[in-house]
Queue: 3 jobs
Job 1
Amino acid sequence: MTVLILTSRQDVTADMVIAKLHDRGVPLVRLDPADLPGEAALSAEYVQGDFYGHLSTDGRLVSMGALRSIWVRRPGEPAAHAPEPSKWLTAETEQALYGMLYSATVRWMNHPCVAAQARCKPWQLSLAHRSGFAVPPTVITTFPRVARQFAAQYRDIVVKSASGPPPGDPPVALPTTRVAPGTDFSGVAAGPTLLQQYIPKRADIRLTAVGTRLFAARKVSASGQVDGRYGDTGHAWKPLDVPDRIARAVRDYMSLAGLAYAAFDFAEDEEDVWWFLECNQGGQFGFIELETGQPIAEAVAAWLSPPARESS
Amino acid sequence: MTVLILTSRQDVTADMVIAKLHDRGVPLVRLDPADLPGEAALSAEYVQGDFYGHLSTDGRLVSMGALRSIWVRRPGEPAAHAPEPSKWLTAETEQALYGMLYSATVRWMNHPCVAAQARCKPWQLSLAHRSGFAVPPTVITTFPRVARQFAAQYRDIVVKSASGPPPGDPPVALPTTRVAPGTDFSGVAAGPTLLQQYIPKRADIRLTAVGTRLFAARKVSASGQVDGRYGDTGHAWKPLDVPDRIARAVRDYMSLAGLAYAAFDFAEDEEDVWWFLECNQGGQFGFIELETGQPIAEAVAAWLSPPARESS
């Protein structure tokens, strides 16, 4: 049984997992959908009630029936490397590739349709509530009046993007930012704005969930630091235990969202409460593994691999 | 309980359903996501474990808690009508709107994540097989050799697009086309190509499924006509009964795909077999209703409406 990894050529996180799969002797195929068609080729036949599909890349041929699992890491856009790329060629190639993969009986980390919904931050907040996490009061609004009321009620608030940083080259950093008292909110009418109560935090917590295995890491915050992703705090990520209550909430969240992998970000306050900030279904784990020594790549490889008796 | 309809301004099919909802006295809100923010506004609050959302459009305000159902008809791209549209504004608005809607407890026709997978034609074929439909032998390939073998085996074949017609203005028609004997398939390597055994057909059949209610219509084919969507056959759509075997397969397909609405296209051959061609989760029904008198708009309105005792 073979593992299929969808990712671009330059991906050290994928390399970490591939090394672990090699250690286990598990066959794998690495494919960048951008190389299809061209470097890679595919064929899917639907005949007499049966389905046969295969994929060829780097001189290797893998049949859909021989696939154990698919890891969607950082796949390129289908047909992006074609000699004459076009929107239509991308659409046709995407349908051909993903349609064939959806037809296979495999486990996904994570299924693209599940991932699309899981990326939606407002939905993350309601799911986090339902799963039992502490969630900072949040509003997403295009009503300046609602933004003003929220600021008046919670006083110390931050603003962040709902969908991530703006696209474009060079990339624009968009850290979570505290909102100064007396801010004019009339611009809120021009675009949905996400405001959240500011959580004075002692530490950032990153919890990486791989199936049912959970890896939590903690980094002490620099005084007054708002967004742990930007700036050096002088502290390193250290492993820590996952409280039972959090473990239960993580498993509920993963199950409700249909996720096999996710990276959760929390803010730890002075009273040891872990406040849910977001859940990134495709979050990086390499930097955590390097600093903490937690065997996350090994856990990903184990989840993707066939059960031990099959792989021997 | 209110019905939310996501569609663009010009949509006569939506108008047909809206008339039926008015007849039933069911409150509804019609929103084009392209008008948000601007003509329309939204606000979602996630506070103390509760979620409150509301949407304002055309001077009406609807709370997420009061929503019964959401019909995704032909929604415009979020923020497309903004004074300064941008990819980022579209992404932010999409997250804010759909994130809020995903957080509501409603029935969807169809949920956008379900719809995305259901559009994938190769996946439709394997689902059709699993559901028990007759499916013409089909291959989707980038291997010229495989295309040649398929043509040699099935002789009379057609070529069609996997993803629909190429984007662009003016639109390009791309009818299903018979492949001439001796065709050179070397170009298959440049883009995935969908080849299918040609089914000599007596009639086209369109089956519209609205929840568990099925409406089948039949149109006699013109002699030698390949693609029923193009050209006048001189025949009209006539209603016909749905065989039990087909009804079971449709319900299995809808259930496996998670769909509440779908339009199935079949080719009826000389032996009365209905060959599955495709399933369009957002397929039109207005032209069928106008020619056959089948109450499809009424069925959609009924599915979207609260149960009778609630709406009184």
Job 2
Amino acid sequence: MNRLFLIMVFLGVPAVLVGSIIHLSDIPIFILSCLTIIALASFIGRATESLAIVSGPRVGGLLNATFGNAVELIISIFTLKAGLIGIVLASLTGSVLGNLLLVLGVSFFAGGLKYKTQRFGLHDVKYNSGLLIFAVIVAFIIPEIFSQTMDDSATLTLSIGVSIILITLYVAGLFFKLVTHRGVFASGDTTNEEEELPEWSKKKSILILLLSTVAVAFVSEQLVHTFETLGEKFGWTELFIGVIIVAIVGNAAEHFSAITMAMKNRMDVAVEIAVGSTLQVAMFVAPILVLISLFMPESMPLVFTIPELVAMVTATLLVINLSNDGESNWFEGLTLLAAYLIIGIGFFLL
Amino acid sequence: MNRLFLIMVFLGVPAVLVGSIIHLSDIPIFILSCLTIIALASFIGRATESLAIVSGPRVGGLLNATFGNAVELIISIFTLKAGLIGIVLASLTGSVLGNLLLVLGVSFFAGGLKYKTQRFGLHDVKYNSGLLIFAVIVAFIIPEIFSQTMDDSATLTLSIGVSIILITLYVAGLFFKLVTHRGVFASGDTTNEEEELPEWSKKKSILILLLSTVAVAFVSEQLVHTFETLGEKFGWTELFIGVIIVAIVGNAAEHFSAITMAMKNRMDVAVEIAVGSTLQVAMFVAPILVLISLFMPESMPLVFTIPELVAMVTATLLVINLSNDGESNWFEGLTLLAAYLIIGIGFFLL
Amino acid sequence: MNRLFLIMVFLGVPAVLVGSIIHLSDIPIFILSCLTIIALASFIGRATESLAIVSGPRVGGLLNATFGNAVELIISIFTLKAGLIGIVLASLTGSVLGNLLLVLGVSFFAGGLKYKTQRFGLHDVKYNSGLLIFAVIVAFIIPEIFSQTMDDSATLTLSIGVSIILITLYVAGLFFKLVTHRGVFASGDTTNEEEELPEWSKKKSILILLLSTVAVAFVSEQLVHTFETLGEKFGWTELFIGVIIVAIVGNAAEHFSAITMAMKNRMDVAVEIAVGSTLQVAMFVAPILVLISLFMPESMPLVFTIPELVAMVTATLLVINLSNDGESNWFEGLTLLAAYLIIGIGFFLL
């Protein structure tokens, strides 16, 4: 399997490069890019895993989420530059939904097929669920509702204020977790780590992580350019492409690492990847994009469409409810996947 | 008391039969039907209780919910056939509200007057609350919100998709509870079951259960025909009749059994009846009706009115919050009843 | 500090009195009143603390909330009399938001800077969160949503019904806590109470409490009269004044006492003040005002604006999520304050 992914990377990246130069038609580029990203994601997953073994589950999880979302941030900046604000907001929504429902759902499900009940730290759950409610239910809903009786300038001011508050709280949260309350979060799957050896050395892991991230960023950009054609060919709306397609491909890295961890019964790391990545998108990537958009021709307010917001809010409530006992099983995973499917059909038909 | 119910059944059922043949006016039929159903409900309750003692609390609870909702399913199919989609959706809403707020509320309250604090299994609570959020908050809200910017055909497609997903997850949930994670749910009120003896034999219980269910179905149908007249006479809207009247009478069986169990301090069974019945309505009866309606002159989308949806969502959040510690007392029961009263007044005035 | 407050009270109260007689301009009266109320609040805080040491945390908390809200009730009746229904509803909203997010947030934050993790009784949390959901999510949302398809008369009838149910349940809750389930709530911060001595005798505390409350009521009334001018001068909307300014100044007493308690690690009392006060506003002050308004020229329905309602609902969900483990730390406090800031900016820009 790993050998196959290696071949896919060494064939896929040059192929996409050549394809983009010779202006290959969009459908083969789309398929090539998807496959290459999935292969690259496996490398990112393995490199992160090696690093995680060396650095402990928390830093490993953070690394993962960071490398997954660096890609998204880069793609979004290009999209913003092209003035496609709707697609940026849709892909942020898709990231939140994809991580909360799809990545966590597959992790719970796949892990649950192997282990009857899997456990993860309650302190992390508590921290994560508080911030999920804060970000999705307070910081996303308030601008949405209040903007309905505001003019555009006030809406933008509110968006900027909310963005700065989100970033500040996100940074304060890191300080809380890594400095003032470090010991509290240190527990978890100690039983599993005993004799596990990293696949690659620290140095090699970091190198592979960096190279793969750059390659993913390049391939992803080619992928984005095929979306318009795809919409026309298959009758997909921009909303569906942003929320579903970008989310699945753009979160392939988190996806791969989270499931790998879940199947090794290191559910702490899997949850940290899925929810940590969600929080990073909601509390860091989204507000940063609002602030960056101020220097672009068209500014982006932090105002989602009603279906986007409702999907994120219901997904958040479901995830918090299912995870708040620090246990998971295959049926909880299936419930999350069912929710993702319902929301996916909804966006497809919209 | 049991003797009185016996007399009511043996007088009531023939009386309703005769009344429907000689076209008795609607008000006496309404009163007769209600009384007969309540009496029949007591038999269903006692038969289920006997079976529950023989088969354990879980299967007993499932039996109860099934027999209560078989009646509802039959009534709804007749109503669908008459093209009264609004009343079907309203009575589904009423079933959810009636079970969550009224049945659970009276159980908590009546049981709480006798016992200071009553306990029920946390694993059941967790399973139930996850599915309640999934069904009411994801599967009911998404079609509602998304349908507002969709045409009728897309709305129906979405409704069909959501319905199939709901039924699939419901069946997967039974598989989870009864097969893969059977042991997890087996605990509970073992202390109370010690030497309890069933009132009737297994055979006799099943016979009474079947006969009573058939009788309830017949009487309920007569009851439904009186609703139009009642609306005119008393100024009740169809929404109020569906949400409140159908809910109270249609859930008389669950009502009776749940309270009986609560007062015997078998709160596990009482909660299983109330919430299990809610889940069966939301995840099985409602989607089955959507699918059945496809073969009828007018199809029914899974789109409630906004007041119906808001009432179900707020009720769900309240019940999950009150039950998530696995404990109940009279004040929690009163809180649920107060919520039911507020929603009831709302529908009455609408 | 206490000496400074003493001077402020003995200078401030007469100054406001003289100012109101000689018709001093509104800006100095506004500043004078605010300072005086803050100073008076410190006396109320110290008197309540003395009483709390004598009477135990629960009665102390109740005393506090009562004396804080007596002031609000008096101001609101004056405002109702002037027909300013919008400001009354806004200040009720502000009280809920101020107590839940600001008072609780500062308590968690300030207490958390001194103590790594602070604990409070889970039985109280459970009781409070159940009633918060009942009051804000059921009793406030239902009239809001249902009134959108109702005429004014039905809306008022619904408001009256909801108000009577709220008050009844509030009184039943006191009966539950103080009579039938008294022992359950009696635990808590027993470790801290050991040898603590009250600052003032019981008699002196009660006298100071009464005098300060009367003074606060008088000064607050003067303060209210300056609001119109302030709105004009600074471009503040009535909504912003009601929700933010009235909330901060009007809850200064709870504020001061709660923080004092939090910094003494008596988090049980701090939470009881903040959440108890919220519940008293939502379940007692608000419905009493609806009933009182029936005897005034213009009746007040229990229908908030959509932004007011959404702010209260999201704040409630956040607080319940953060407090349901019975633990707090500085970061949870900061999260609550960040939510308050977002909502504050929203109302400022509205």
Job 3
Amino acid sequence: MRFHEQVEVHGHLMDTGVLARVLDDVLAYGGDYRVDKIDLGRTHDDESHAVVTVGAESASRLARILMRVQVHGVNKLVPGEARMCVADADGVFPEDFYSTTNLETVVHLDGQWVPVEHPEMDCGLIVSGGRVRTVPVADVRAGDVIVCGIDGVKVVLPVSDHSTRLHGEFASMSTFSSTAAQPQAVLVKAIARQIREVKAEGYQVLWVAGRAVVSTGASRALTALVEAGYVDVLFGGNALATLDLERALFGSALGLGSPHSRRVQRGNEQHIRTVNTIRRAGSIRAAVESGLVTKGVMHAMVKAGKSFVLVGSVRDDGPLPDVYTDVVAGQRAMRAALRGVGFTVMVATTLHSVATGNILPASVPVACVDTNPSIVSGLTDRTSAQALGVVADAGLFLEQLATELVPDYQT
Amino acid sequence: MRFHEQVEVHGHLMDTGVLARVLDDVLAYGGDYRVDKIDLGRTHDDESHAVVTVGAESASRLARILMRVQVHGVNKLVPGEARMCVADADGVFPEDFYSTTNLETVVHLDGQWVPVEHPEMDCGLIVSGGRVRTVPVADVRAGDVIVCGIDGVKVVLPVSDHSTRLHGEFASMSTFSSTAAQPQAVLVKAIARQIREVKAEGYQVLWVAGRAVVSTGASRALTALVEAGYVDVLFGGNALATLDLERALFGSALGLGSPHSRRVQRGNEQHIRTVNTIRRAGSIRAAVESGLVTKGVMHAMVKAGKSFVLVGSVRDDGPLPDVYTDVVAGQRAMRAALRGVGFTVMVATTLHSVATGNILPASVPVACVDTNPSIVSGLTDRTSAQALGVVADAGLFLEQLATELVPDYQT
Amino acid sequence: MRFHEQVEVHGHLMDTGVLARVLDDVLAYGGDYRVDKIDLGRTHDDESHAVVTVGAESASRLARILMRVQVHGVNKLVPGEARMCVADADGVFPEDFYSTTNLETVVHLDGQWVPVEHPEMDCGLIVSGGRVRTVPVADVRAGDVIVCGIDGVKVVLPVSDHSTRLHGEFASMSTFSSTAAQPQAVLVKAIARQIREVKAEGYQVLWVAGRAVVSTGASRALTALVEAGYVDVLFGGNALATLDLERALFGSALGLGSPHSRRVQRGNEQHIRTVNTIRRAGSIRAAVESGLVTKGVMHAMVKAGKSFVLVGSVRDDGPLPDVYTDVVAGQRAMRAALRGVGFTVMVATTLHSVATGNILPASVPVACVDTNPSIVSGLTDRTSAQALGVVADAGLFLEQLATELVPDYQT
Amino acid sequence: MRFHEQVEVHGHLMDTGVLARVLDDVLAYGGDYRVDKIDLGRTHDDESHAVVTVGAESASRLARILMRVQVHGVNKLVPGEARMCVADADGVFPEDFYSTTNLETVVHLDGQWVPVEHPEMDCGLIVSGGRVRTVPVADVRAGDVIVCGIDGVKVVLPVSDHSTRLHGEFASMSTFSSTAAQPQAVLVKAIARQIREVKAEGYQVLWVAGRAVVSTGASRALTALVEAGYVDVLFGGNALATLDLERALFGSALGLGSPHSRRVQRGNEQHIRTVNTIRRAGSIRAAVESGLVTKGVMHAMVKAGKSFVLVGSVRDDGPLPDVYTDVVAGQRAMRAALRGVGFTVMVATTLHSVATGNILPASVPVACVDTNPSIVSGLTDRTSAQALGVVADAGLFLEQLATELVPDYQT
């Protein structure tokens, strides 16, 4: 290998298997490595430290390998100074742009380590006025100054600083998150405690919810959580809001145990009529304020003055007037709503949960709830440094969470 | 019940359980019924006919019940003449607009039964120049003349006319579609025969494909099917095309059995770099024509001059320059690409398959392939009058289909 | 068709789709039919009645078709007198033995309609001393008098007589059981009410439980239900009991969030040591009475003097001394424990739930709880006339059920 | 910690994450550790070596921890001499018996390292005439000499010796087995090559098959594989054989696409009649030899003179006369059939696959095929050192495998 570079990594290397992943990635990208030094510590609480030389056939491949392994918290031993290029077209990064992780990141500019604002994965880094922030590819503009290559960029693995903020129990559980063989009732209690603590520290709680929240009969519990102040921001899609509003508008017609969901459907007259009614009103807020909608989750969000971001998908009917039909615009709105969020609960939606995971910094803990174990493990592996998976149906999960958090909530 | 109306339904009422569904729906919508006449025929091949009186407390509820049960092919015994209203705002239907099914529909205008163009569910009916066509709510404009209420609208259940066009075997199998206990090898052969026959009759074959087509190693088979002329239109998302292009651009780096998909990810440098490269090229077509992309599914589509519609979602990175970021614009592009389609294959995507099912007329037969039985049954129940479900992984399904359809295809 | 016979069926033919199934089955068995008379009633509450002539090419095929359609409650219009044969070998029925359903059944003997004792599907009918009872094939003995053919056998569909015994809400919900789109919290309440009512009427409650009851942390809730008297009989396997006893013996070693379940296993020392310890004690009861086991579900069952039947499977380690290693002997023990049972709860086990469904009469209502929708629908379709499916994890289900049923239960 | 012991482990410690698991297990069992020495090698191909001191509060706990971590290939640095106790009762081990892994194991007796015969997990070690073999708890007899404690027992991790016997491709793929994102067509080819190679070396191929093999229409492919000599031993249950024989006896009645499997069932007359017919014949072999059964998988096995072991379960009807109703006797028959097996294919059965995994030595490679990713990963994690998971339906998998292995096989 003609080109090589020494990298280092700190942390609980044995417990997390991170070193194995780093070495795998080096090989998968066509590089090679040599372990120069490894200090695992002697007892469980000691931190480890490793130094590895990574080699590749070309400088550009080496740069890509080094960027790749940064997702595991591996940095160059001698980081150097950041290099910058100017974007030559709107919506396109320079060829060898630095591709971000969602970890805390610092950039070496003029001899100073400058922290990256709003860490988000799969972005570029834009430098402006001595500050550095992430920018998604769709938002880069010609003339923007973009960090290129790996030089002068360091990531910081989440270790002690975050754990002080996290409820100890939640933190320790989240190590073993993505498995079906967990005592769910205990997990729900841990999530409840974590939410209380996060709120007490002044952070906001973000919910990402799928339509099953309504269809499993859990909207009463979620409404109670909204009213009790435990839902600061809500991300979802057209289906969640439409189904909730349909129940508010036409609730008596389609009662409990309605068999319609499992029957042949060649159209859903009531669904599209709900959408049309809200379009006529102008917005969900207008429909609530005019007295047209008097109950349900969306009603509670409006009444409580909380913010929601609904982003559309290609399967939507309508959609509702509040729904972002442009997904890139929707992503921007979601990013804007993330400020101040200290905890995220994802319930019964893959699409919007992955979308949220894409833009969340690794420092925000996440709880993922779904009946499908593969979805739970996919979400918890991919997003936060501290993600707790619960294999459970939305209905009973929300019932129990409301029982824990809302005084006098009657199941 | 103060308001009532006689309705009738023809067809194999016993075999399909359709009458039970009609009566259920009447009760679920708060109406009541009385069976006036039922003729089931005496043998298996006889068609049945039933007349039922449906009642409700109000005229508007009665109208909604009658619209609802039209999804089962139930029409008023005395249809009357269509009533029309003028839309008073862009993107909003009149209050009591007629909500469509995806069945063949005719409208009684000035004593003439006028067929509805482009049947699609959950739309309105726009009348213009003596013709009637479906219009989704987002596309209605102030001043448009819209059919309101149920009067003068009749649906036609798909029976004999379509089955002549369908391969007999496919048609008979599709009755028992949504079950895991099916001999898959036989189903794949039936789909191959159906595709050949549809092509021979001059219809186009539409494919809706998810990213698993690439990640399960099936892109070689799908590419062969494109080159052999069995993929006229392709619907998908950003992930399918990006993963396919990533393999074309960086294939050697991430080989078979790459473990990356199941590992912790805090960013996917190669994925976003692929997106950036194609954005720089301007489009997928430009990247193919400039020689940047030389293999894979998208390459084959461009080379064969076939059309594809990629519609974005909120979880997308980038996205690619060809992707519709506005989902309503994407739906319009999909609708435009449906003309001439005589068969649809849906493989390993729920999002885009449901979106396609939403806009397909019931007369186009569909094959749905997924490893999850619930998804297969959901899709087959919801869309075509003749839908065949195959619980199978994309990889082996496409291998076997290519073996059936492409001469000299080597697995 | 040279051989034919008139059959009749009563009941809600439209609602249940039963007539379609009957006609399907006739065709699938190679017969043909002619609908002679059908009276659907005019309103929702009217009962229907149909008379159909079924034909076949041979008398034996006709007899098999008639037996087959009896599972749908279809009887010969002129039943005639029962015919009997003598079994000529142990464990083998006469060739044309009558194969039972699990419906209430009566047999015409000497001009009298004699009710069948212990209805159970897939058995023969043994006649002895003017009484008739079911016998499984393994238990028939040479010389036993067995009903042959269909003559003189009538089944009675469960209609009004049972619904009087059932909580109305449960009965109406159970019509729509096998779907994920149900409000689970409401279903759990309905099950709680049903259990209370069944107990108040003096019936016993049977539980069939899988190991997930312990591994999801629900054993505390199930133990509370045992102590409160809501678990009269428990069916399960070696894994459920061993895991419960392992926690009682070694609980502190493997705490919450233990990662062991998802790791490579080449042996499970603690599991087999638990089995050995109980084998040394002689039985679970002995281990409880000697003070070796002081907590958990099995401990509570022994202390409360309730009966349990543990039947082994080929995947068992050990097994525990209480486990029936012979599955036919295990089935006999389960049958013996069914007397007096008026409600069954199946939680998180397919194997033992199907086994229980095989021997339960259709008149005993069932609640099935599993995270897998396919398993829930499979179980509810197959067993009781009134089966309620809940797609939920064992953990939260049992927590909520205990909260409903056990005063002062603290989640 | 008052009691402690030095242990060592060799192998690719980083790649496999094995060291992390060892240390986790020590903590989970209430012990503590100190890493004394670690040598990871410098490049990818170097083997690693670690020495760790493990401590515990009591000698018995320390012994249990040391036994536990042996499943990861960790041995005492100074193994010492084996200690033996005499079993004092039938079916019960001495208190501190050594609990086995399924790894190659050697025992230090009189200064000699004696290899353990028939490695199998969760057994004891019986010493007799200078030889050592595994014995399951049910088979131990009073007076047997049993190894107790960890002293003098060493396991050997499967590294280079086995890989020489394995097809390189299979071996490398099996590292990444349990994921859905695999190119299935390539996996099937690798399995075909591995089977051919194993046969060429004189080993036998064991198949473990579930009833879905028949119900997915794959019995023609499996029959062809039997006839071509690729199925030496077959493990299964009553359902597999009965369904196969039912199709052979009554095949024409229940044709393709039969809807019966998804319909309400209150009895299955044809199934139990099949069982009764074979019981009357005396055995499956007798039914084949008398000409009663003329096709299908069981017919082919009998004609080819291959052995099968059918073990019953509590959900069985009948069962067939060949089925072991006693599961412990069934396990013994399975063990006896394992001699000479060099490869195992598990298709569409969890129960019998887990049972087989329980008794297989780690040295036998395994391919697991199921549509459920959780089952595939559960099976591959648990059994062989080289297990390849394929998330696929039995039907298409067997079709493609037969196409690969059987000349002139026509799909």
